[in-house]
Amino acid sequence: MAEEELEVAGNEPGWTSEVDVGTADAAWLLEDGARRVAKFTRLAGAEAKVQEDGKVQLVGGEVGDGLGSRAWAEEVLQALCALRTGRCVTILRPLGDKATSSPSVSVVEVPSEDAKGYVMGKGGERLLKLSEEVGDAIAVLVEEKSAAAAESAEKEEVANEEDAAVKVGDLMEALYQGGKRWFEVRIESVTDEKVKVKWTYDEDVPEEELLLTDLRRKEEMQDAAPKKKEPARQALEVGAAVEGLYSNGKWFEAHVTAVLDGKVRVKWTYDDAVPESELTLADVKGKPTVEIDKVFIYGDDRARMTMELKILNFVEMKVKDFVASKPRVSDDCEGNGFSVIPLLNDGELKAKVIGKKGSVRLKIAKACGSELEYIGNLAYIVGTQAERARTAAILELIQTVPTGDLDSVPEVLEAMASLVTVHPEALPVVMGKQRATLNSMEDETGTMCFWKNNPVTESQTPEVELALTVGMTVEGEFESKKKGVEWFEATVLEIKHGEDGKHTVKVEWTYDPDEKSELPDSDVRKMLTVAEHKKREQLEAMASAKSLVILGPQRMRALAELRVMGLVEDKCPGTYASFAPIADDSGFVTEASTLADEEQKGIPEHRRKTIGAASNCIIEPVGDTLYLAGSFAERALAQEYLKWSTMEKPSVQNTEARDDIDVLVVTKDKLVNLTPRALGQVEEETETVAFFAADTPGGDSRLVVCGADEAKRASAVAKLVQLQEAPQEQDTKKRKWEDWGDGGKDWSKADGASKELQSAPPKKTKVLVFSSEDEERRRKRAERFGPRP
């Protein structure tokens, strides 16, 4: 990468510089709308104008916190371009200026032989993909040199080139007449590309002119011979890992505890009970040192930490204990940082916190907004202090609550928890087979769920005040060995008052007037109306219900909460009949749709989802009611879009003054391609809502495109314009006989039909008859899941 220094200083705002990155790197930077150039600007604090000839004009901004300077911008540009092919970058720094001192660079050590290739990927593909996924961060392999070392290396390279030059009188080797054997020659004369040589094995052989490429130095053959390289070993110092020769003649791992005169005292690592030993220097050898390369990570704090965590995990996967044996210290700060937490019982339940294909790990991280990896038996967590604390709390719950039933929600998780009471009969529906339904909902919403037992409160006690009188019809408790406690209708015959304030009631059982019993008044209760009886059953059921604790971000919790309520309400109608959240404009809340019941029933599921995506509002059915969750603006848009969807051609006014609507005027001859199916496909692809509003006075049609996201609306309009201008497709579909003009005609009654055809009895028509309950059940299913295929 060539550089050209301009006049303006590199640490003053407004400095300029020109860097030649080459045409290939320039084209790569300009791909996808120059998104990589925008990324460079965010990371470097400088503007970049990339030209197709490979020149990049850099313009500095405000210089501060290491960002914005010329040196920093050029270093970031060099690193970004190196990502394309995975090449190693040489960073030149003044003596004493280390990359680790920069707030915008992290350094990760990678074992050269065992892990570098895996971390890099083929041609640097893995680091490139990781840099694209993480966001505002890039990671490259770096060779760091001081300016003095670079100057010395350059001089050495020049000297080597001079030594390598072919000179008259040099003894070299050449292939004789294009054969396979090399013979010694003496250089007689040298030109730009050719030399004249004399074969030394026979002075009578005439001189010969050869190409420089046909020669080699004699020592090259010796250098080419394979040499066994002795690995570098750790120095014998206190704390060093070594191998010692034990008394049985075998070598074992140990740590140096003291260095004596001509001897070394070591502690054997294979068994703590074995006492220390003093060994001679000949019986001790330092363990081979691991050659390492460095990966530099540029970016903001969170992105750098996330990428560092991913790379550390890659390294540990290839070189076990390289990272886990030297765990980093947890950060004690409110902002972004690392927390390193050991898994319980030395990772006994590690598989449980990982989950199938890492599903549990991903759900924990998504619910808490953190990054999570397991390195050895340690949990490495990246995030703010609150995010790290929540992640650690959920990890502890999973490892300490094997059944998943909580007694209480930990205080640190209360702010990210919602509780939904689930009817006992609906528990299997919410769970699904082997928790499949709940797992699927967690994956879709990015939440985690635990069960919590509900304590019975007085408000849940289904007691109705009772004043007993003779002749009153009541319910009496009867207990049998087979069926346990049951309640049966009875008539009060006599009330006996005891001295201790307790009463007994003599009753006659309705199912058998000849059978009479005396019951304590606590075993007698009022005979309820149908409505009262239903309410009592609900209260009794809810007293034994469980609460589902949903953990995650507020929006995702609201979605999961409504999904669960919908499942419960389908199984046990009326469970949430009293659910009436109060909506206001204070923030993210849930409210019921303002549509009439019949209007809500007429909105199919796919339309509801389209409107939810366009308005960025959660819309979910609970029983026959649609509930909306979002901010005040999101809910307002969703309510309006839902209302319009119930109209054949809504009248939309003041579209010019709204920032959520674009209008496309379509002439009559362009309507043919804009079918409902085509509009639906555009809606799904762009997350917008499109419909024809009332026609304009001139007879043209107004196609209204709605959505909170301006870019998505623009994309939808572009697709619709392209669609209406496309040539009409020919109908090549094979038609059935009845699709043609006379397809529905009864040919047996036609003139000229044969007598046999005319006299044939009419075909019987099968009519399926359903009860009103079946029809209602089918209607609800169609609304929720769509028509059967």
Automatic annotation (TrEMBL):
The lineage of its organism: Eukaryota, Sar, Alveolata, Dinophyceae, Suessiales. This is Tudor domain-containing protein. It comes from the Eukaryota. Residues 730-754 have a biased composition (Basic and acidic residues). Residues 726-789 are annotated as: Disordered.
